[in-house]
Amino acid sequence: MCDAIKCRTGLCGGLSAVTVFFALFVTRSKPPTPVAASRDSEIEVPPFWEGVKTCFRSKTYWVLAICLGGGVGLFNALYNNLQPSLCVMGYSPSFDGGMGTLLIMSGLVGAAISGLYVDKTGEFEKVVLFANAYRRLDDRRRIVTMKISFLLAGIAACSLAISINYEGMEGWVVASIFLFGAFGFAIYPIGLEMGVEATFPVAEATSTGLIIMIGQIQGVVYVILTNVFVGKPDPHQLAIQTCVDKNSNLKTVVTWSVPFLIWAGCVCLLIILFVILFWPKYKRREYEANRTKTENGIVLPEAIEQEKTRL
């Protein structure tokens, strides 16, 4: 049995060695045969800066970047504020830390399940207006999971904003955090895929990277915003708090009722904007469908050239 330090060092060294191996000896970035028509080498991918401009010219992409990026930012803000908001209500340090772990783990589970579900069913959309439910239904069904997950994450966020103000509500807090993490992170892989669809043929790294960057910027804004509105605890909260020792400086203990209401309000605002405004056009799928029809002799080859020109 090795000691803890040696085991951790060996583990980190092994993982680093695997990374070095792939970086030095794997020289092919693409498979010999394109996995889909949209991966064909004939497609001209715009340069980086041109791809950035293309992304920012798309209203659909702006909606996705603000709403999905905002969701990531709100997730980060919750993780940052979770421990101090729980300890002021008397929850134990072990419970506070466990909730942070639960938030991340439930998010990983939700993202994995939603990704597998979408890959198997192709359903990216759940909200379909009755007036045009039968118009291009196959495309509209593709963001089903994303919008429903966003809505359920909003319900969980409101539940957490209420439960966080009461002591002794471990079950309520656990359920709210688990559901927010699971449904909130479920939209992440689907949203990145939607960004690729809306900006095709822009490189995937460009569209996804911009969403991640915008999300991190919003995360900083939300953390600052929520910390501005913290309040002073009452004598009962000072008596039950577990944030600091009783003999320590109690001035550092603050309440989070108003910040969590602001946080939940931001979640709901992003959901409303996303559900109403996000109706993407699936450029990559359209190209692949036209390419497949051409290969089967259903569409003339000129159609593909026209599609490339349009993109």
UniProtKB/TrEMBL annotation:
Transmembrane segments: 61-79, 99-118, 144-166, 172-190, 202-225, 260-279
Main location, first listed in the record: membrane
Subcellular location: Membrane
Superkingdom of this protein's organism: Eukaryota
InterPro entries according to UniProt: FLVCR1-2_SLC49-like, MFS_trans_sf
Cellular component aspect of the GO annotation: membrane
Topology versus the membrane: Multi-pass membrane protein
UniProt name for this protein: Major facilitator superfamily (MFS) profile domain-containing protein
